Structure formats: C-alpha cells, structure tokens
Amino acid sequence: MDTVKHQKKNTSALKKSKSVKNINHYTNVHGLPSIEKIVSSVEDTPRPISTQIVGTIPEWIKGNFLRNGPGKFEIGNHKFNHWFDGMALMHQFKISNGQVTYKSRFLSSDSYQTNKEHNRIAISEFGTVTMPDPCKNVFQRFLSRFESHKPTDNANVSFVTYKGDYYVSTETNIMHKVDPDTLETEKVDWSKFIAVNGATAHPHTEPDGTTYNMGNSYTSKGSYYNIIQVPPTKKTEDETLEGATVLCSIPSVDKTKPSYYHSFAMSENYVVFIEQPIKLDLLKIVTGKLRGKSISDSILWDPKLNTIFHLIHKHSGKVSSIKYLAKPLSTFHQINAFEEDGFLIIDLCASDDGQFATSINSPERASIQLGSCKVGGLGNQRHHPTRGKTSQEAVRPCLPLHHGAPLESHVQVLMLSRLE
C-alpha cells in the first residue's frame, strides 16, 4: 500500500491549467495526462479502422473489448448541462491475431433519435431539462410544462452482462441489448419483468452467472429500494430478463425523499445497500418540468442524517435486523467488500460534503472529479475551483456480523491511509 509520504509526493505533482475559461483543471494526477478529452464531443467511427500496436499482443488474446460513455454534449445550438447527459457512444476494440481494430457507434436510443430529428435537446436528461418545442403555439408550449419527465433511454454509463448477453445501461428502467460484433441494439425495459422504476448500471455477477442489482419503486405507500436477482442462463435464445425476481424491498426512511445511490456492494453472502443522506426530492422531480428544473436540481444533501448500511442475505433475501449507522457520508462507487473475522468489511470512496453527485454540473468540470478518490491524501483538504476546500477519501466501514451485536450498531469507519 502507498505510504502517506509517497502519496504526498505524488499529490504535489498536480498541475493546473486554464484550458477552460475561469476553471482550473488538475491535468496530472499520479502522472496521468489530462482527461479533458473524454468529456468533449466526438464523431462516431462506424467502420473499423486499424490501430498502431506498441509491443506485442499474444496470439491467444481474441475477442471484443467494449466500452461505453457520453460522446456528444451538444445538439444543434443546445448544450447539455451535466457530464452524465451526453449522448451514449459505444466503443469496440476487436482483437485478433495480434492486431486491433477500432470502431464506435452512437447508441440509437429514442433520446438520440428524437434529439437528432429536432436538432435540439428534446428529451430531458439527469442535469438538463428540455424546453418547450418552439414549433408549438403558445398554448401548446404552456401545456407541455405540465408534462412529467419521461425516463431517458440514453444508456451511457456502462456495459453490463445478464445471462451471458451484453447490455448498455444507465439508471432508468431502459437498457439496450448489444450485439458485441455489430454494435446493433435492442431496447429492453426492466419494468416489463419486475416492479421497479429503474436499476443501477453497476450490477454484480456471481461466478455461476447469477446477477444482482438494485432498483427503486414508488408506490402509494412510499418509496422502496429493491434487491434484484437475475438467473444465470437463458431458456430460449431470444429471452432477456425473464426470470428476474425481487429478493426483498426495503422501505425508504423518508417516504417522499429516498436516497440517491449509483451502485452497491456485495460480499460472498451479502448485498450491502448504503442509504446515504443524499436525497431525491420526489415532489421537486415530479414538478421539475413545470419549474424548468432537472433531476439533478432535485437532489439535496442533509448532513443531519446518519448513513445507514443495510445487509441483505443473498440466498434468503432476508434483511439483517441490525441497523448499522455511520456519520454522514456520500459515495458513488465501492472498491471492495469481504467477510473476515466476524465482520463485513467494505472499502469505498466517500466524501463528507455530499456534493459529488451534483458537482459534475458541466462536462468541463468532470476532469476535476474523475480519479479523485485517493488513499494517501485522506482527510487532507484540497482546493476546488468553485467550492473552495473539499476532500474525498478511501474509507473502510467495518460491520459486525455476530449475533451479539446491538440492534443499532454504530459503524467504525477507518481511513485506508492509516491502516498498516
């Protein structure tokens, strides 16, 4: 593990540039070049092109290396407000006989096609709300303000697998099944198989192919977090999510303000859901179009609330009766989770200011946040161009699994930089 001294040495190498007006960027993190280019608009490359190979690729490596992400941040004269909003671009690196070809294709989603047809942003995204169609009359534009946000199918977050098939996913109920050779796609709706209003783009898959995910549902009784299980294999060639089940449903502490989550953790026997003090104000989301506000404008941070860790046994679907509480934390991704000496141990990237989800409010600022979870600089404050001092840490919550643990256990959260 890197020492604090070594990390400080690397941190001091951070350089700033003013490539975007009034915004300073870290352009060298641990020797890595600037990542600004990955948050810039590009054209797709639908026909394979050859690449220059440095070194030698073993002959036995053969297949497609697939990646996904936002690739277009402007439609006509309109620009997206948030890095998460860019139109999905799928990348394929085909490896064969020691050579690599590359091609890419914009996902032919309903969002992409509608935006392209109107030459403007016509479908709202996470941080961008669409404005009324200028081609409509005044009365029609007024009425369109009362329409709710339709869930986007702009699956720009990641490639995932279910039953051996490849999908591109975002956080709504719509995914797209992808042919890994042609990059042709087929739309698949979670809600046609189980009662959820969306699912994460970061499922976990067991060695046998069984896949676990999470998704919210909103009912007259309140909001619920649902643990999803998808079987490992298909019964017929053309099936998709058939056989998916909800293992359990966990009610939100606040019925109208469920926690936002981007991912979850999983160990050998448990799914771990972290109910954090980043909240989705459902009333604001429902009235967002009327107020001209996006979903990201409806996310709030409440530092008065604890962070709650929910443990769900994967095989029984039973939720642990122990309520694991920790100080207010916000997290996007988990690093690892494992069971050892009567504890469930989770490594994750976290901050204590709750601003990570809303701070990437433009494609340009994404480079400030990506890769910013560091082990050695933990607890140290860094200067942020717009928020002043901030910190993001790699931390290790330790959850006791033994039956003698109190029904309300306060979780010890360790900083990885202080572990030997």
Describe this structure in words.
The protein has a five-stranded mixed β-sheet with strand order 17-18-21-22-28, with no helix packed on it. A four-stranded antiparallel β-sheet has the order 3-8-7-4, with no helix packed on it. The protein has a four-stranded antiparallel β-sheet with strand order 9-10-11-12, with no helix packed on it. The protein has seven helices and 29 strands. It is globular. Strand 13 and strand 14 (211-219) form a beta hairpin. By secondary structure, the chain is mainly beta. The protein has helices at 4-11, 110-118, 138-144, 282-286, 288-291, 356-359, 366-369; strands at 16-20, 23-26, 49-50, 63-72, 74-75, 78-79, 87-96, 99-106, 158-162, 165-169, 174-178, 185-189, 204-205, 211-219, 222-230, 245-251, 265-266, 270-275, 278-280, 299-301, 307-313, 323-326, 330-340, 343-351, 382-384, 388-390, 392-400, 408-410, 412-415. Helix content is 10%, strand content 37%. Residues 1-30, 138-146, 366-371 and 375-390 have low confidence and may be disordered. InterPro entries: Carotenoid_Oase. One of its GO terms (biological process) is carotene catabolic process. Belongs to the carotenoid oxygenase family.
